[in-house]
Design a protein that fits this description.
The chain is mainly alpha-helical. The protein has helices at 7-28, 38-47, 61-77, 92-100, 117-136, 147-163, 178-186, 195-198, 217-225, 234-252. The longest helix is centred in the N-terminal third of the chain and has 22 residues, at 7-28.
């Protein structure tokens, strides 16, 4: 998170950062209709209803207004990238985690408007700062030409070419990884995994069982764009994490370990 390691300082920092966020709201949010920012705000306003459209929580006006403020303030404070489609998805895990502290029932159907206003404000501010902390480390994913994503997709293609025992299965999509893997990197798998799983896992994926039975480009692409993860739970994510950990130390820290 964005809190200091020193426990004694956390309450003071938390209060200061929350006040700082709402200071940004007072200072900048009114400018969303200005000529310079109206296109940014318009795109955010269009994208918000598309964020987890099947989960009732994210279709509530109160929640959508929170997301609009968070994304607009982040965008104008980061002019190198501004707002890019996909960033809207990255708010949701933080928002759900902070909201869950005050919800006993199913959080996906909870009415946020029923919470005290101060609690709503705290959730909003904390979500903003945590998302900002995440994006600080991957901002090149969202700058011009999105070089961070390009590099990650290339690394994925290289890794698959080294470790897959049936490389012929990927011959049909050779050079076309961007057509499906771009969204994986851009949204950190937010649209590929159920929300309950992406809260725990955002940054890796390995699955190929059904791919091996398909050799045509269209079939492979359709499969990779509609991954069968809707019923995944913690057990499946745990297995994925274990495999990702293994590959990290076999490939990332020793790139010559696998040879074609």
């Amino acid at each position: 998170g964005y809190l200091p390691a020193n426990m004694e300082r956390r309450d003071l920092v938390l209060k200061r950062k929350r006040n700082e966020y709402f200071g940004f709201i007072e200072q900048y949010y009114h400018s969303r209709t200005d000529e310079h920012y109206k296109d940014t705000y318009r795109q955010i306003h269009i994208d918000i209803p598309r964020t987890n459209p099947l989960i009732p929580l994210f279709q509530q006006p109160t929640v959508q207004e929170v997301f609009e403020r968070i994304l607009f303030i982040w965008a104008i404070r980061h002019p190198a990238s501004g707002y890019v489609q996909g960033i809207n998805d990255l708010v949701t895990p933080f928002f759900v985690v902070f909201l869950s502290e005050f919800v006993e029932e199913d959080v996906e159907n909870f009415e946020m408007a029923g919470l005290p206003l101060e609690t709503q404000r705290n959730i909003e501010a904390d979500s903003f700062w945590c998302m900002s902390k995440l994006l600080d480390g991957i901002q090149d994913n969202y700058t011009f030409a999105q070089p961070g994503i390009q590099n990650k997709v290339k690394a994925l293609e290289e890794l698959v070419s080294r470790i897959d025992r049936h490389p012929w299965a990927f011959e049909a999509i050779r050079g076309e990884y961007l057509q499906f893997a771009f969204r994986w990197m851009n949204n950190l798998l937010m649209r590929e995994l159920p929300l309950r799983c992406t809260i725990r896992l955002w940054d890796t994926y390995q699955w190929r069982k059904e791919i091996l039975s398909m050799v045509d480009f269209q079939g492979l692409l359709m499969l990779l764009q509609n991954l069968p993860t809707i019923h995944w739970g913690n057990e499946e994510v745990g297995l994925l994490l274990a495999e990702a950990y293994r590959l990290k130390y076999m490939f990332a820290d020793a790139p010559n370990h696998y040879k074609r």
